[in-house]
Structures are given as C-alpha cells and as structure tokens.
Amino acid sequence: QVQLVESGGGSVQSGGSLRLSCAASGYTYSRYCMGWFRQAPGKEREGVATFVSDGSTRYADSVKGRFTISQDNGKNMLYLQMNSLKPEDTAMYYCAARYGYCSGSFSARYTYWGQGTQVTVSS
Hints:
- By secondary structure, the chain is mostly beta strands.
- The protein has no helices and eleven strands.
- Strands 2, 4, 5, 6, 9, 10 and 11 form a seven-stranded mixed beta sheet that branches. It has a four-stranded antiparallel beta sheet with strand order 1-3-8-7, with no helix packed on it.
- Strand 4 (about 30-40) and strand 5 (about 45-50) form a beta hairpin.
C-alpha cells in the first residue's frame, strides 16, 4: 500500500524557515518521480518543486532562490527546505509521486498524493 506522509509544516513569521519532509512507503521509491505542490484557499493547486531526469531541479518562479528540494533514496524521504518565507507561501503543501523518470513537469499526472501539511506565514 503506497503511503506518502508529509510533516514539518507550521506557523512562522515572514522571513522564517521551515523544512518539510515526506516519508514514502509501499513502492520502490527510486523508480518514481517526486514533487512538491501547494494549494492556498480559493486557489488552484500549483507545482512548487520537482526534479529533472539529469538530477537537476525545477522550481516555480515564485519560490526560486528560497526553496530547495532534495531527497534521500536510501531512506525513501523527500524534503523541501523553505527559507525567507512570505505570507503568500501560506498553503497546504503536498508531496506527490508518479512512476518513471522526472521531466521537470508540474503538469504531469502524479499518481500518489500525501494528506498535506499546512504552512502558515504571518506578516
């Protein structure tokens, strides 16, 4: 049974940092592309960070230079380090997985989703 469990969300002031984690289980982690998404109230879900097949990373323009995605294949863990947080980063953050190599696409169909972890940034 595939499970993605996010943690690390919380409430911080503008300029603060948080590190999100996503624990994956129930599948061969290295065979799946992982990504971070977020959804703010009243807005559509958007891609935040993912990987490209050459191992590089891709970020939404709004988080470039502030967020860093990483993963530990040996521990089946995905991370999102978020620095210099802004109120507009407030959202529910989700990790997601889809089979195959990463292409850097946020529009690709991700098969598995976690339950989300809330990030709230106050000004």
